[in-house]
Request: fold
Amino acid sequence: MTASVFDSLVGQSHITEILQGAVAAARTNQDSQEMTHAWIFTGPPGSGRSSAAVAFAAALVCPQGGCGTCQECRSAQSSGHPDVEIIRTEGLSIKIDEIRELLTRTSWAPSMGGWRVVVMEDADRMTESAANALLKAIEEPGARTVWLLCAPTLHDILPTIRSRCRHLQLRTPSTIEVTEVLEKRDGISPAMADFAARVSQGHIGRARYLANNESVRNTRTTIMKLPLTLQGISSAFAAAQTLIDLATEQATQAAELRNEKEVDDLSLAYGKGATGRGMATGGSKAIKDLEKEQKTRQTRMIRDGLDAALLDIATFYRDVMMVQAGSSDALINKELEAEITATAAKTKPQSTIKKINAIMDARTNLSHNAAPLLTVEALMCVLAR
Ligand SMILES: [Zn+2]
Reply:
């Protein structure tokens, strides 16, 4: 088999087949059922919905239909292709101004004479007015513009937009599929690949990050042991603070590197160091704007980190429930088997279910901008019961 941009998708052969059909139809330049100008990719976090969309975009602009190696393929995948626009949201929402700007840019004909493709990675973050502005464009598309919207589920997209798009649902790759990719493609040892795939629950990006990063693994270990520290109210408050601190610390570390580089780049663009007038006129405002944007991004990263931590903790109680149900051979957290078995013996299945529900409720509240510390404190009090 020859190499292709679709090779990077794990466990999505049903999607790959449809997309390859669409690419083939698009290349014949004839109207066909298989190719359409608006698509929605849904799937759980880490299933690779945006990777699938970006691969499709590359295949549409590649002269060979997605060889994965040519200049077109590579530049499309690294956001460097003039006809492929990948919209990644740093903020909590995509606003109407951003959509308007995007629509102006995409009204131009594709520079290479082929397709112009827009990939929107977080289409669910569009405000309602932004979504309505986009709807107009999808209703009256430029003949050569293709819209690829990504979202966790179809419900995250306005019904009016949904009804005009073709829907592709990605599945969560199995632990075995993720393990294989980590071993074969990333050269990770079998034991580490198994661990990372198992605890990441089909989230390939997170599995790779864990496997390659010792400090991230250590943080996870600390988080997974938090349920064991819960004995009474004061330990609940302490655990909540630890969780917030860990999420903040990780987000800060990841953000700082990027922030510094961005400010440097921007200063350079405005001629910092020189006595240039640029810095005095537009430069300092641009840097203030950038810093504001960076602060928003950090807030989002802390929330995302907290969400991931809560999901991890939920797997602890999921394992407890498995043991209580009498099946201990499919534990996600095999490393904690002794602790999980002890907890299972001490508590009742009903209370385990209540705890899992409380974790899911806390995640929902956080996604609706509830105050992080208060939310996590309330949750830990429930878990401590
Ligand atoms: Zn190519």
Summary: The chain has a mean pLDDT of 87.
